[in-house]
Amino acid sequence: MKKFIAATLVLALVFALAACDTPATGGDAGDAGSKLTVWCWDPAFNLFAMEEAAKVYKQINPGFELDIVEIGWDDLQTNLITIAMSGQLQALPDIFLVQNNAFQKNVMNYPELFADLTDFSVPYHQFGPSVVAYSTIGGRNFGVPFDNGAAVAAYRLDILEEAGYTLEDFTDITWDTYIEQAKDILAKTGKPLLSGGAGDMDLICILLQSMGASFFDADGNPDIVGNEYISLAFDVYVQLVSNGLMVEVNSWDEYIGTFNNGIVAGVINGCWILGSVQQADDQFGLWGITNLPKFSNVSGATHYSANGGSSWAVASSSSNVDLAVDFLTQTFGGSIEFYENILFAAGALANWLPAGESDVYNEPQPFFRDVPIYALITEFAGLIPSNYTGVYYYEARDAIGNAIVLVLAGADKDEALKDAEDTLRFWMMQ
Amino acid sequence: MNLYKRRNLTGWAFLLPAALMICWMSFWPMAQSFMLSFQTGTGARMRYAEPLNLNYGRIFNDRVFIQALQNNFYYLLIQVPIMLILALILATMLNNKNLKFRGLFRTAIFLPCATSLVSYSMIFRTLFAFNGFINTALVRVGILDAPYNFLTNAPSARIVIIIALIWRWTGYNMVFYLAGLQNIDGNVYEAAKIDGAGPVRLFTRITVPLLRPIILLTVIMSTNGTLQLFDESFNLTSGGPANGTITMSHYLYNVSFVHSANFGYASAISFVIMSMVAVLALIQMKVGDKR
What we know:
Radius of gyration of chain A: 23 Å
Helix content of chain B: over 70%
Low-confidence stretches of chain B: none
Number of helices of chain B: 13
Distance between the termini of chain B: 40 Å
Order of helices and strands of chain B: HEEHHHHHHHHHHHH
Oligomer: heterodimer
CATH class of chain B: Mainly Alpha
Distance between the termini of chain A: 58 Å
Strand order of the largest sheet of chain B: 1-2
CATH architecture of the largest domain in chain A: 3-Layer(aba) Sandwich
Strand content of chain B: under 5%
CATH superfamily of the largest domain in chain A: Periplasmic binding protein-like II
CATH topology of chain B: MetI-like fold
């Protein structure tokens, strides 16, 4: 028995020590050589792109070393908050990835974490204006845009054809036409055109951004009650759901399943969704992509929008800010070779517009009936209207998401929006 | 130093490391977060609120918090009694020495407790999905004409969470009752049987009264656990639809990490939850403990 207790204690001690020994993930603030630390998520996508970028940059700066740490966005956000709260800025890496929708909020709440990149030679004019706007606060630039969130509308061409339509009939159309045709397709083939998470705000946000609209006015005050754009987006959403044109699901895997299993005949989302669309081998050559339907009779309405995407930030505490910015500029903001490398291996699309002229981007994609979709999406990316996200973007999404659920359940739209604005104002109180 | 003192000191020496660790890693942060609950602001720029009780004052004007509070009490009032009664009945049945495969049944009923909270929540979400197993089964058997979207309707989503909770925690409470039943002298039952008591009487007149301390313990633990419910709300329903299933702890998480971080307000919420747990435990102890 004694031996057993002793063994247990020793084991416990070993585990405790092992736990202490977990390598610190922070940046090497003291090491002013040519080594950088990066935090980002998604090994197949962001980490891979960073590795490729390091390879390209090594040709320019042979002594360059990059230490990439995988960390999910939720954890990364939590880390940023705790680092800012405790003032332990040296725990930050040199470069970290930030969701575009959370960029303004983090810079406004924790300006001390971010290096101001405005006066460096990042070629911002070569990126789409809307992606630069995400990381621009008060006219200053704090990020280098990376992951492309340009929205696309993808359709199952075989199902459209079965109902007598072509992709042309869904290109440059209005939402009214879309709903008409979707009803017809549902009647003829039994397939709805869309799917989405219940109470999930992705589609509403895509609709709003396509009009350049936001939940806030230019000063950051809530602008929900009497906001014509939100009201229009709600109307479209309600029509889609109540007519059975959009299937509502409860989780991400269900959502992916709706188009991979052929339950729905179309997808509207950020272009990164095409990675999931292409998982269905049996749907090879059946998909086509085009721009979004737009709102008719609305000033500023376009066929283009975005969902998600992310940008690189440089930590103010980095002892290598110059190197970090130069690295990002030479790769993410200046290397066609780099964007060609990551396009095929990871399907990672450029926000950097010159990459769209590359031959690789113009190659036909057999999954999409030999259309060069990458050049097409890069073209879309340059046309997206910017919108204001601000500090309380996630609160607004939360409040509006609840309002749409209530409206679908039969509540009065104006009342639900009034409640949403009250809730949002409550959350914004300090 | 006499023997008594030396022993005493040895005891304290053994206690000291753990006590210091608890004070440093647990009590000190609690004190700090109590101070934080009077502050407001973001990031490192926290300042004391004007008036000092601003955060506490706004809690009960917060519609989402009130909704979360109602959800929590809904779970508490419906799930805890069902679960505990079920656990008690199962424990009594499994305590029967003549039952075959007792060990197997005990293990099977306790096993859900060994699953991680996140994974079982996700499995329940998949089971009750629109085209999930439950819907498919109900439609095939003919009970439903078309699949029912359990998780997008608040009442049914709450019931799914309650079913999940019962599945996960009944076995856990049963083990406490089984342990308690071992301590009841078999002679008591024998004497009662000789006096002509049936199984129901044995249960209500002997088992339940003699298990009272254990029942009290499980009630307090379950109340505490239900008020701090997080994983099920977060993973099974994401708090939806329209905050219809969100719990206080889940809202607390949103306030801290999803929304623009407001740690002052979040700390205030956590202290309100703590006082509720304390008050409920106190009431239960007064009512339940008749020693």
